[in-house]
Write a structure and sequence with these properties.
Strand content: 5-15%
Number of helices: 13
Number of domains: 2
Radius of gyration: 21 Å
Organism: Streptomyces chrestomyceticus JCM 4735
Distance between the termini: 61 Å
Structural class: alpha/beta
Order of helices and strands: HHHHEHEHHEHHHHEEEEHEEH
Protein name: Pyoverdine biosynthesis protein PvcA
InterPro entries: Isocyanide_synthase_DIT1
Strand order of the largest sheet: 3-2-1-4-5
Pfam families: DIT1_PvcA
Amino acid sequence: MTVTYEQHAERGEQGEDEGEAAFAALTEQYTARILELLLPHRRPAGAPAGTRDDGGDGADSAEGRGHDSHRPGQCFAEQLTQIRGFVARREPVLLTLPAFPCKSPNPAKVAGHLPDLGELLSLRFLDDLCAAIDAVYPPGARLLICSDGHVFGDLIRVPDAHIDAYGKALRDMIDANGLRHIDTFGLDHVYDGRSYDEKRALLEKDYAQSVEELRAEVRAGGPALSHYRGTIRFLVEDTADWTGSKAQLQRECRSRAYGVLRRSRAWGELIAHHYRQTVRLSIHPQACGSAKFGIALLEAADNWLTPWHAVVVQTGTDRFRLMKRHEAERVGIPAGPSWRPSHYIASELVGAAG
């Protein structure tokens, strides 16, 4: 029995029993097709740096690149359940992504404190992904960027004014480019009438786990330890004006890393409270069976590199790669104003054009 989406919707409204198996099968079909659109862009834990899960042959392990794609019922049960709920209710799929916080404060990594081509390419990718879901599932999809800059801005030493400017420029970029599938949500949308410091304190009070619980989880190893180490690395790199010893910096960043992780998780809990039914995405690599789906925004040499910790280098026609600014300056020339280039162009491309 062939069933159109319109018939599927009508069947749900009529509440008829006849053909329920066929309609249930169609629900599964839509659910599977939506997951298939996400899989090529997956950022799996344990994959080689800069790679996505392309569905190719992988190692026979939970972290094998590509291998997870062949057992979606096991590795993506959480995502299938989330997607299935929207399809069964015939609602647009809502994707939530805590990301786009602010630019790194380290000028060796970024070209300024405002969004540039890296953010624009990432936003276009996310909007195109939602449009691809629209093409196979009529109610479509929407993506909510849950900007987390104000959540831990004091811990990463970025002024709230810079985070505000970044967020406004990001929203302007979304509007100017007609990225109609994307909305934003931030700490400025909650705890009305409070300062950012007060909002951060309330976030911890209402949603954060204890420091002791987090420390125990990190000591146990696994994803928590990996995330903790990655956060320390970022904090060390981004403390460009440190005048003490390297050992002192490491100790100071280890302490701040627990604060960043604790608030990041609290932010996730707040998002879940305000948006109870979502497909939860993450810019961090995620293992098989995770509640979140790790998604790669742009090609990068480092699995932890993001547009707000790097600049974009054009390496070919419609080919772009994230690099730290000091690396980009060795292989390319700036495009746009020298005081704040939008991206870099690989030297060999400039030579070929000349």
